[in-house]
Every structure is written in structure tokens, then in C-alpha cells.
Amino acid sequence: MPKAIDLSGQRFGRLLAVERRAGSSKEAASWLCVCDCGNEKFVVTELLRNGHVKSCGCLHRDQLSERRSIKEKEGSRYGKLVIVGPAGRGGSHGHYLMWQCKCDCGNEVIVEGKRLRDGSKRSCGCLISESITAAHAQDITGQRFGRLVAIKPIIGAKYPNGRAKRQWEFKCDCGKKTVSTVSMVK
Q: Which of 56, 73, 82, 163 could serve as a FRET partner for 146 with CA atoms 20 to 30 Å apart?
């Protein structure tokens, strides 16, 4: 039988090995450890040595608490969104802090805090409409359509169903301005 390894006085994460407890035929040898937080815990020798156990459980609780702590605050800006206030918990299993946000375009949305932090939510959805409109807009600036001359595209215009609308501002020969789609003036 191999000689028992003496771990007394050695530190493993937040644990300090104090006293060895011999194992039985059904149970592995373990060590009484004192955690930095003051708790005592028996830990199997192998779990200490391979780093699987580093505390009495307080390390995991501290890490969870840190992840769930509020990093956002009212008035913080994330892309086009500004936090107005807390909106409770939601998301998958109700674990995420939700925030009421106001978009630069005027819409209000409720967003998970983690989506604000990781940048996956930067607007109420208007950025998508703007990028689609800009990417697919045919540049007709200065072109004439009957009595109308195209002046500039209207970015962010939407149909009632929320889809991007490619509208342009036109100036009539009479001096008035109007907004319309290219297909309508053609």
C-alpha cells in the first residue's frame, strides 16, 4: 500500500489542509480543511490535489454574486439605448435583471442586462432597419421623376408591420417637399 501524502499546512485555493482522516474500504482518505471564510470542510485528498475543490463553497457563491451584481445603472448608455430604470427579473428562468431603456429614436424597450453588456442589444430594433435601408438604398440623389427631384434618403422609416421602408425626400418644381418611395415616384 502506498504511503499517505502529508498535505498538512498546504494551501489549496481558499482551503488550508489541517488534519488527515483515514479512509475506509468504501471511502477515500480526506483532509479536514479550514476555509479562509472560517468554515471547516472534509475534502477527499485527490480533489484537493487536482484543484477540483478550492473552498468550502463560498468561492462559488462569491462568483455567482459577482456575476449577478448590478453593473448597469440609470442613465447609462449602450449603443442607442439609455437605461431609464429597473424592470424586474426575466429572461430564461427569470434569472436576469431586466432594464427599461429608451432608444434614441424614442421607442422604449425592456432588455436583459447581459445583452446590454455584451453588445447584442444596442437599439430597440431601429439600427437593423437603418442598416437594411442604407445597404439596399439605391442612390438617386439629384435624379428627376416628373416634377420631383430626389434630395436625400429617409433612414429608419418603417412600414406599419415594422419592416424597413426605403423612402426619399423629394422637392417639387413648385418648391414644396414630399416624402415617398422610389417605386411610387417612378
A: 163
